[in-house]
Specification:
about 1300 residues, 3-stranded antiparallel β-sheet
């Protein structure tokens, strides 16, 4: 025995003795195991040895033996000289006796098992006993050899509780190895033969027989071969020639018949394993090719391990009948992508736990991107911990937002078909959070209607322009709201996967961008994860998707993890071939190597080649072999193109002409098409389609599911499409589109119309045969564009209108011959161009309209979008001039000079008119229908916004009066409620007529609800809230700004993001918790950046800096952001942007003044106050701390008087508000200003009383920020008047209240005053 094995003896665990397994000879074990199973009711030996229980035990025994001998084999391998010294490892040589006589099996006794179960401390595990060290088993065999030969061992043995097996010392000696170890493999194989037969088949004098795996398959051996007469019988056998050349004399007389194992019902793979061990092949070459003999025992061990670990794969015989009838089929397993799958899983886990992250799977076509996504979906869905949604882009798809909307439409269908309580929960949440506007999404998600129920008003879904300022932005906003709401209805995260993102359309990019950037709590709370797949080799750096992901990363910090897929390795490819053919990897390795060489490891290419091998009968199921076999030499000689596209195209040549023709038609519609559409087309063009396409399904070119026909891979679609000559494609598209278009018009099928017109446009003007057809096609494009606008896809709509114009331009006189059609196409195209920020295109279109319009009314649309363009580009003066000129043409000219007298005249006139009318009378007014007056009102509203920006307040004040006068004469327009709200605000805040002003604000809200249009609700709510926050308790009334913001967004009016800024600013100064305010401000910043709304950004930044400083954060955004550029190429610069507009300067200076006063930076406060008062003389809420400088130095006395005077002005304004508007909102401010006034006047006793009153009023009215401020100013008052001890109380209360507000940095600044007061 070697020193190695001796050392092992001393290290055997002592604890094992407590419940050591009993050693049993193999003969005794087979008898005992068979008897044990027979006692359970199975009498037939064939059924016993093929049973799961027996096979499991026998495989464990076989693997233990092979594992032991593999270790010896490895130890012996480095030694080239034969030696019998103790330092040499043991070697094995065949002996005269069968190895089965030296095999002992370790089984547990029933008493030991019962003891272990009671103690729950068994030291053995049936699942890992094969890991016992072979040296330990070797020593155990020597220790127990006497017991094995003693028949008096009467312990009760559980033969089915096998813990391992050993080959005892009798088969191991120091003699040299013969024939490179192959005879040892044969000896072990004979022992396995006896083991798996249950001891009923033993070595005799019969000739050795072949199994299927022992011989090469001759021609005609296939199951459906060309020469059935040459098929071999399953039970036939032939002599093994040349055996005497390699076997010893003692083994020459030992032969078995392995085919008898098949008759016992044992798996073919196991029979082949034993046969390949017994046969000693002397033929040079690859012994493993197509199932050759074993060369190493370690190979036997590895194959046995695979059988144990994956019995369903390697011990399940191939269903030959199914293989013949169905052919070669591929499962959904993933091969060689473990690292990539792990990366995707890790990205997902980070996304739903701590970080905002998305993933993109990149690689060439056919590399396995979609399969990786499906495997990921399976892994996250198997335990029900996520909701997986998926969609796919198609370059020929006609439906707007199809990939994303179809993914969420599937979600709606899933919810409807699932648990009723979940459906009700989702339905209730959507209705409560989104209201009637949710119906707008039904056009893109039809199954949403089933969630909402029959009682929900779906009429909203058919509206567009009258309910939206920008329907496209409205749709994106509502979609984000939808994602946010449904994500909160489930505990599981939502996962959205989009395939083939290289074909993503602009509308989908914009929607996905908004979902990722501003979908609210779904992203922030880590309940939404997006990943996609794309062919990155077909995408430039400037691809819209790449640009969008870069922007999301820069603006939101959402990083993208790129998962790059490359070709499969040889090992991964062999795993694939092995699994799909249910053969051991050792057998398939040679085939896999050939395939890898020919395909370079492309998964799709491998599948296509294997399918082709099957079709050419080079890979087929064999009856004699009972498994898949292949013709190696013929496959090697097979000529295969270098790329999969060419290969697929060539395979089409074997399909019938009719099938290929039908595939060509189908390919014109993209990767898939509804069967109903193909049936319509078949009828219209009178060409067989359905039957040939069913034939293509049988050939695995197409799939058929859920009413759709789809190409099994996009490369197949591309191959079919390439069968058309480039010059013929336009004619095909035109023909199919026209055929479907007439059906769509006749049957009023909107979906079919979009598909039909898309087909026509793929053909283009060159396919049009005459002028008459050109006009027909232009009209179809007009209808399709309108349908796309109804679905809020202005990108698709613009494409349809542009195509319509291109067909009209085939005739130069189209403005004269088809004026109405031309005007409508150009008007709608210009509107879409503006919505899509295609400004150059917009200018060209409007110039054409202005030049060719026959009357002024026909120019309204062009003027309107031009005004909007000028305002958006920052050229407000030009916009104002164009509006005033147009109003003059409409007989609604504004005064050239607006003086206070002119304003008073308009105001008095409006008051007189309204005094004669009750609210009920006004509410009963009919709607305005005069186009000129409607347009005039629209322009006046535009003018009001423009003048607000540039600060021209004189003209500003008469615009609402003008709109009201027009409304009283011509009826109420959609803008009339906003005008009444502005009128009420003017009365209350300028004229101090709070009661009358509040009345008209409430009337404006009533009129807003009465009118059918919801497009301008946000403006009405916004202006009415200006008045309400003065009259109603501020803490509750500022929520109306949030309602205004939501209404603006629901109508798509993202240019009024200033509403959100106003809400956040009021939240800041009303004392709401600062951290929540900062979060809300950051959300507004993010949204403003997404929409590139520089005005909203400029409004928000100053106040955000103040809030961040108060809470002690220093990460304030920079005033210039080079990475943020608007549609006009302008880079955001806060100072430059504010300089353009007086209202923005007012906000900036107000923030600077407030910050300086809060932190008592009095010099900075002086400068900021000068700037603030230079812009605006305080309309609304003034700062409440204008009594700063208290120095009594003569040099400062004059300056102090100036500030005291301004403070008194503020106090008087606040006093009016407190008396006339709201005690709740202004009483505490008034007391505090009065206290500061008395302090400056040295009326200290009165000041003390007023400070305490301000503190109490702030507390009662819940202004915690002003309670803190009043306490702080009182502390300074007592400190300045020499009462330091008393100031401690007030500073301490200020410190407490600032912390309660969240202003920890401000509270920290007070500690120096506390320290001074204590000295």
């Amino acid at each position: 025995m070697s020193n190695h094995h001796r050392s092992k003896q001393t290290t055997a665990p002592a604890a094992a003795a407590a419940s050591s397994p009993e050693p049993v000879s193999m003969k005794k074990w087979t008898v005992g195991a068979v008897d044990s199973l027979r006692s359970r009711g199975t009498q037939n030996v064939d059924k016993i040895v093929s049973s799961h229980e027996y096979l499991s035990c026998a495989l464990k025994i076989a693997h233990s033996l092979a594992n032991q001998l593999s270790t010896v084999e490895q130890e012996r391998a480095p030694h080239t000289e034969k030696s019998n010294t103790n330092n040499s490892p043991p070697v094995i040589e065949a002996s005269d006796k069968s190895w089965s006589e030296y095999i002992y099996i370790s089984c547990m006794t029933k008493e030991a098992v019962e003891k272990d179960m009671k103690d729950e401390s068994s030291t053995h595990n049936s699942n890992n006993d094969d890991k016992l060290d072979p040296g330990e088993l070797h020593n155990l065999s020597k220790q127990l050899s006497t017991l094995l030969e003693n028949d008096n061992n009467q312990n009760s043995i559980d033969y089915l509780d096998v813990r391992g097996a050993i080959l005892n010392e009798g088969a191991v000696d120091g003699r040299s190895l013969s024939n490179d170890g192959k005879l040892e493999i044969r000896s072990l194989g004979i022992a396995f033969y006896e083991l798996f037969s249950g001891g009923h088949l033993t070595a005799g004098t019969e000739t050795l027989g072949h199994t299927a795996a022992e011989s090469e398959v001759g021609e005609g051996d296939e199951l459906l071969g060309h020469n059935p007469t040459k098929r071999r019988s399953l039970q036939s056998s032939t002599n093994l020639e040349g055996l005497s050349q390699v076997q010893s004399p003692s083994m020459a007389s030992t032969s078995v018949e392995p085919l008898k194992l098949l008759l016992l019902g044992l798996p073919t793979a196991l029979c082949d394993l034993i046969s390949n061990m017994i046969v000693v092949d002397s033929v040079d070459g690859d012994a493993h090719d197509n199932g050759g003999t074993y060369g190493l025992i370690s190979e036997v061990r590895d194959d046995l391990k695979l059988m144990i670990d994956s019995p369903s794969l390697y011990l399940q015989d191939v269903d030959l009948a199914k293989a013949v009838n169905v052919g070669l089929q591929f499962g959904g397993s993933l091969y060689g992508r473990e690292a990539e799958l792990q990366t995707l899983n890790e990205c997902y886990q980070r996304s739903i736990s701590s970080e905002c992250e998305v993933a993109m799977i990149c690689g060439t076509s056919g590399i396995g991107k979609s399969k990786l996504s499906r495997e990921f979906a399976r892994s996250v869905n198997e335990d029900g911990t996520s909701i997986f949604l998926s969609g796919r882009f198609d370059r020929l798809e006609s439906q707007p937002l199809h990939a994303i909307s179809s993914a969420f439409d599937k979600y709606c269908a899933w919810v409807t078909a699932g648990d009723q309580s979940t459906a009700e929960k989702v339905s209730t949440a959507l209705k409560e959070n989104m209201g009637e506007e949710i119906a707008c999404l039904v056009t893109v998600m039809p199954n949403l209607a089933n969630i909402l129920g029959d009682d929900f008003n779906l009429n909203q879904s058919s509206k567009n322009d009258d309910t939206a300022v920008d329907a496209q932005k409205r749709l994106r906003y509502l979609f984000c709201q939808f994602v946010d709401v449904i994500s909160r209805c489930h505990e599981e995260p939502l996962i959205l996967f989009l395939d083939d993102c290289q074909w993503i359309d602009n509308a989908s990019v914009a929607l996905l961008n908004q979902i990722l950037m501003i979908s609210g709590s779904a992203i922030r709370d880590h309940r939404f994860f997006f990943f996609g797949a794309c062919r990155d080799d077909e995408m430039r750096e400037s691809h819209p998707l790449n640009t969008m992901l870069t922007t999301v990363n820069i603006l939101c910090g959402t990083k993208t993890t790129k998962i790059q897929l490359t070709s499969m390795s040889k090992g991964a490819l062999n795993e694939m071939v092995s699994t799909e053919l249910s053969l051991l990897p050792r057998i398939t390795r040679s085939l896999a190597n050939i395939l890898h060489h020919k395909t370079k490891g492309s998964p799709l290419f491998v599948k296509q080649v294997m399918m082709e091998l099957y079709k050419q009968r080079l890979l087929y199921p064999s009856l004699s072999h009972r498994r898949w076999v292949w013709e190696t030499n013929k496959i090697l000689d097979m000529k295969i193109p270098d790329n999969v596209a060419t290969f697929i195209t060539n395979t089409f040549d074997r399909l019938s002409f009719e099938v290929v023709s039908a595939l060509v038609v189908l390919s014109c519609f993209g990767a898939s098409a509804d069967i109903s559409l193909i049936e319509v087309l078949e009828r219209e063009i009178e060409q067989p389609l359905i039957a040939p396409l069913d034939d293509a399904v049988a050939h695995s070119v197409l799939g058929k599911r859920n009413g759709k026909l789809y190409f099994m891979h996009d490369k197949l679609q591309e191959a079919a499409y390439s069968k058309m000559k480039p010059e013929e494609r336009s004619l095909h598209h035109n023909r199919y589109g026209l055929a479907l278009g007439f059906v769509a018009v006749r049957e009023r099928d909107d979906r079919l119309l979009l598909t039909a017109v898309t087909q026509i446009n793929h053909g283009g003007p060159q396919a049009v045969i005459d002028d008459e057809q050109a006009v027909v096609v232009a009209n179809l494009n007009l209808d399709a564009g309108k349908k796309a606008m109804n679905m809020s896809d202005f990108f698709a709509a613009h494409s349809f209108f542009d195509h319509g114009i291109s067909y009209l331009r085939l005739r130069r006189e189209h403005w004269n011959e088809h004026y109405d059609l031309s005007l409508e196409l150009f008007n709608l195209a210009s509107k879409c161009a503006f919505m899509n920020a295609e400004h150059d295109r917009l200018k060209m279109l409007t110039e054409q309209i202005m030049h060719n319009a026959r009357c002024f009314n026909d120019k309204f649309q062009a003027i309107s979008v031009t005004v909007s363009l000028l305002n958006c580009s920052g050229n407000v003066p030009a916009a104002v001039e164009l509006i005033k000129t147009t109003l003059s043409s409409l007989d609604e000219e504004l005064p050239s000079a607006v003086t206070p007298t002119v304003v008073k005249k308009h105001l008095d006139n409006t008051k007189k008119q309204l005094a004669l009318l009750s609210d009920d009378t006004l509410l009963s007014y009919l709607a305005m229908v005069n186009p000129s007056k409607l347009f005039a009102v629209e322009l006046l509203v535009e003018l009001y916004g423009s003048l607000t920006l540039i600060g021209e307040r004189a003209t500003l004040r008469i615009i609402p009066l003008k709109v009201i006068q027009i409304s009283l004469t011509y009826g109420m327009s959609p803008h009339s409620p906003t005008a009444f709200a502005q009128y009420g605000s003017y009365l209350a805040l300028i004229e101090d007529e709070f009661e009358e002003g509040y009345r008209y604000v409430k009337f404006a809200l009533s009129l807003m609800k009465k009118l059918p249009s919801r497009a301008h609700d946000g403006s009405t709510l916004f202006w009415s809230t200006h008045t309400r926050i003065h009259i109603e308790p501020m803490q509750s009334s500022i929520e109306c700004y949030l309602d205004a913001y939501k209404a603006h967004m629901k109508s798509g009016n993202t240019y009024v993001l200033a509403t959100s800024s106003m809400y956040n600013n009021c939240c800041l100064w009303s004392g709401k918790e600062l951290n929540a305010v900062v979060d809300s401000m950051k959300d507004t910043m993010k949204e403003s950046k997404y929409h590139k709304n520089f005005v909203a950004l400029t409004l928000m930044l100053p106040m955000l800096r103040v809030a961040l400083r108060l809470i002690g954060q220093s990460d304030a955004p920079a005033s210039q952001q080079d990475n943020l550029t608007n549609a006009f190429g302008e880079t955001f610069n806060e100072g430059n942007n504010a300089g353009k507009y007086a209202s923005l300067l007012h906000t900036m200076y107000f923030a600077k003044l407030s910050e300086a006063l809060i932190f008592r930076e009095l010099n900075e406060a002086e400068d900021a106050a000068e700037e603030y008062f230079s812009v605006d003389r305080l309309v609304g809420l003034p700062p409440v701390m204008f009594f700063g400088k208290l120095e009594t130095d003569d040099n400062d006395r004059k300056e102090s008087k100036k500030w005291i005077k301004r403070g008194v002005e503020c106090k008087d304004k606040i006093e009016k508000l407190s008396v006339s508007a709201s005690t709740w909102n202004f009483e505490n401010k008034l007391y505090l200003l009065q206290a500061e006034e008395q302090f400056c006047s040295r009326n200290f006793e009165t000041a003390e009383t007023l400070y305490d009153a301000a503190i109490l009023s702030s507390k009662v009215h819940k202004f915690v920020n002003e309670e803190a401020l009043a306490n702080e100013l009182a502390g300074h008052f007592y400190l300045e008047t020499g009462r330091r001890n008393k100031s401690v109380h007030y500073f301490s209360r200020a410190f407490e209240k600032y912390n309660e507000w969240g202003a920890v940095a401000k509270a920290s600044a007070l500690t120096e005053y506390l320290d001074e007061s204590e000295r």
